[in-house]
Structures are given as C-alpha cells and as structure tokens.
Write a structure and sequence with these properties.
Blueprint (H helix, E strand, L loop, with lengths): L8 H13 L19 E4 L3 E4 L3 E10 L4 E4 L4 E8 L4 E4 L10 E5 L5 E3 L2 E4 L5 E3 L7 E3 L2 E4 L5 E4 L7 E7 L2 E4 L2 E7 L7 E7 L2 E4 L7 E15 L2 E3 L3 E14 L2 E3 L4 E6 L5 E6 L2 E4 L3 E5 L2 E6 L2 E4 L2 E4 L5 E3 L2 E4 L5 E4 L5 E2 L2 E3 L2 E4 L5 E6 L3 E2 L2 E3 L2 E4 L5 E6 L6 E2 L1
Parallel strand pairs: 1-3, 2-4, 3-5, 4-6, 5-7, 6-8, 7-10, 8-11, 9-12, 10-13, 11-14, 12-15, 13-16, 14-17, 15-18, 16-19, 17-19, 18-20, 19-21, 20-22, 21-23, 21-24, 22-25, 23-26, 24-27, 25-28, 26-29, 27-30, 28-31, 29-32, 30-34, 31-35, 32-36, 33-37, 34-38, 35-39, 36-40, 38-41
C-alpha cells in the first residue's frame, strides 16, 4: 500500500460533495433527481419529488405517473408543464409561497390534488384538463393567466361523466375566463357536481371575454357560493347547465351581466339566494329557463330580465334598479308564463318606463304581488304590458 495519493483523498471527497449539491432537487426516499436533460419530457414514476430550490423546466414537461406527488418545501418550479395522472398531487407546504411563473398544469387523470400553489402562465391556460378529472381538488391556490383562462375543464369528447370537481379558497386572476367548465357540441350531461367556493376573482386589464365563472354546456349539480367577484364583463355564465345554486356571493362592478343564463335546449332549477350585488350598469338575464328562484338577495343592478322563462319566482329581495325597468318578463320569442314577483322592496332610480314590464305575445299569466315600490322618477308607470302581452296582473 502506497501513501503517494493520500493527500488527494480529502480533495476527492470535497469534489463529490460539490457534485451532489449541484442537483437542483433530490427526493431522498426515491432517489429521483430533477436535473434538466436533453429530451422533451422528464419522467417521474410513482414517487414523491421534493423541491427545495428554484427549478427551471426549460420549457419541458414533467410527466407524473399515477400515484406520484410533488411537494415544494422551498423555491419554485417554472417555465414548462407538469402533467398529473390519476392519484397525483402538487402541494406547497409553505405559508409564504413563491410564484411558479410560466407554468401550466395539465390534469390527465382522476383524484388529483393541487393545493397551496402560487402559479401563473403568460402564454395560455394555467390549469387545464381535457380528461376525466373526477374528484379534482384545487384548494388554497393563487392562479393567474395573463393570456387566457386561469382554469379550464373540458369534457366535449369524453365517454364518461366528470364528477365532483372542487375549486376552493383560491385567488383567480384572468384575461379571458376565471373558471370555464366546458361541454360544447354534446347534448348529454358530462358534468355532475361542480363546487366553487371561497374564491376571489379579479379580471386583468384589456380582457378578451372577462367572464369570472362559465358553466357552459350540458351539466348539472353546481354550487357557486361565498365567492368575491370584482369587475369583469359577466359574473356567472350558465349555458345548458341545470340544478345550479348561486349562494351568498359578493359581486361588484361587473359591467354587462351579473348572471347570464341561456340554453339551446333546456335549463332548469336555478337558485339565486343571499347574494350581495353592486353592479349598477349590469343586468341579470335568464333566458329560456324553467323554475328559477331569486330570494333574499340585496341588489344594485340595471334590471332583472326573465326572457322565455316559466314558473319562476322573484321574492323577498331588496332591489335597487337603475335601468328602464326593475323586472321585465319577455315573451317575445318563447313562452314566459306563470312567473311570480312578490314581496320585494324595490327602489326604481333614474328614468324608467315601467317598474314591471311584460313584453311579447307569449308573456301571459304572470303575477306581481305585494311589492313595496319607491320611484325616483314618476314619469314612467308602475306596470305595463307591451307587444301582445296579456292576462298578467299587478296586485
């Protein structure tokens, strides 16, 4: 045994320590090293990956296989895409999170959890799913898209039904739409169980659409509750979505439509209750809906329009209206019958044509009962029927 190279052993050990510390993140359990390679994807198979410093994907894709998870303990992940298969999770454990910039999350399986992540995307949708993402949970996140939707879930071409999607207690900033639940071109129900609660929605400047929440396409059983919607063109859009509850939200400074409901086929059982709305330039528009119920809301709005709606009620609300009407029931294109507007306190502000208006020859058998009305301008009338409307009554 020679001793010529003994002085070099400490140098060799120091070199090995420096080499190991150069890896950006190592999971001590699985041994997975997240070092950017030359290929286009970085696979991670069924293990936990721990991020302990800033990690740049360099526009590549981190492909999480089923059952894998990422835990951020320090730093962030940026500049690329993470695909989450079934039973995958992405969680930031810190209170003071660091923003993951230019990162897209693609959900491609069921039972996925995304929690406490601060994420933004300057190029497209921030969180996207075109797969069966049943039991998806997004909670406690800050999600920003300065170019498109913050969250988009698409079920157009799925064979099954997406069930139990929860988006909770998150801040959502968007250019196009905050949350879009989409089933276009398919008349079967593809969504069952959407819960959006405790979120704050902020529209970014120069919006493309400016919708905070869009439930668009055939689905049922959605709850939108306890959210704060600030600004935007439309607060909540419903297209062919039934059995929806919009409860105890605070909606302010929306410019066009606070709630816009329409259908190509059928929409029913919409409940709007306990909301505080301060959008004096915007209206609430319900088109071709059946069994809509407005109750116990406090509203400063343009007016409420029931267009082609039947068997709906507007009751026990406080309505400050700034349009030409407070409530219009429009039967010019479709049946608008057996609606009841009762026991509301209504303040009609500005120039008005009628506090209650029935319009069109399909507007019949509607009732206006026991409402307390104050009018700032008495030039208009309390109630009228136009363009063939008949058999409606004011009591």
């Amino acid at each position: 045994m020679t001793t010529d190279n003994m002085p070099f052993k400490p140098l060799l050990m120091l070199f090995l320590l420096i080499l190991l510390s150069s890896f950006k993140s190592v999971d001590e359990t699985s041994g997975i090293t997240l070092t950017v390679e030359s290929d286009k994807t970085i696979p991670a198979h069924g293990s936990q990956i721990v991020i302990r410093s800033d990690y740049d994907l360099e526009n590549k894709t981190l492909e999480l296989q089923e059952g894998s998870s990422i835990v951020i303990e320090d730093g962030c992940i940026r500049n690329g895409m993470i695909r989450l298969a079934s039973n995958c999770s992405l969680v930031d454990k810190r209170v003071n999170k660091k923003e993951c910039r230019n990162l897209e999350l693609r959900v491609v399986g069921r039972d996925v959890r995304i929690e406490n992540i601060d994420i933004s995307n300057d190029h497209g949708v921030t969180i996207l799913s075109n797969a069966d993402c049943s039991n998806l949970l997004i909670s406690g996140c800050s999600i920003t898209s300065s170019a498109n939707n913050a969250v988009k879930i698409v079920a157009d071409n799925l064979n099954g039904v997406v069930r139990n999607v929860q988006i909770l207690n998150s801040t959502i900033c968007y250019k196009r739409m905050g949350i879009e639940i989409q089933n276009h071109g398919n008349k079967s129900f593809k969504f069952n169980g959407i819960h959006i609660s405790g979120c704050t929605f902020n529209m970014l400047p120069s919006p493309q659409y400016g919708f905070a929440i869009s439930l668009s396409g055939f689905g049922r059983n959605a709850v939108v509750e306890n959210n704060l919607i600030k600004g935007g063109v439309i607060g909540v859009e419903l297209v062919d979505f039934s059995d929806v509850s919009i409860l105890s939200n605070r909606i302010q400074d929306v410019s066009s439509k606070v709630i816009a409901a329409s259908t190509n086929d059928k929409i029913s059982n919409i409940e709007v209750r306990g909301n505080f709305i301060n959008c004096v330039q915007a209206k609430i528009q319900m088109l071709k809906a059946k069994s809509v119920k407005f109750s116990n809301n406090e509203m400063k709005i343009g007016f409420i329009e029931l267009g082609g709606c039947s068997r709906s009620t507007i009751s026990n609300n406080v309505i400050n209206s700034f349009g030409r009407y407070s409530v219009m029931i429009d039967g010019s294109g479709s049946e608008a019958r057996y609606n009841t507007v009762a026991d509301n306190v209504i303040m009609q502000n500005g120039d008005n044509w009628a506090v209650f208006r029935c319009y069109g020859n399909h507007s019949k058998n509607n009732k206006f009962l026991r409402n307390k009305v104050q009018r700032a301008n008495t030039k208009g009338t309390l109630f009228d029927q136009q363009k063939g409307a008949a058999k409606n009554r004011l009591e």
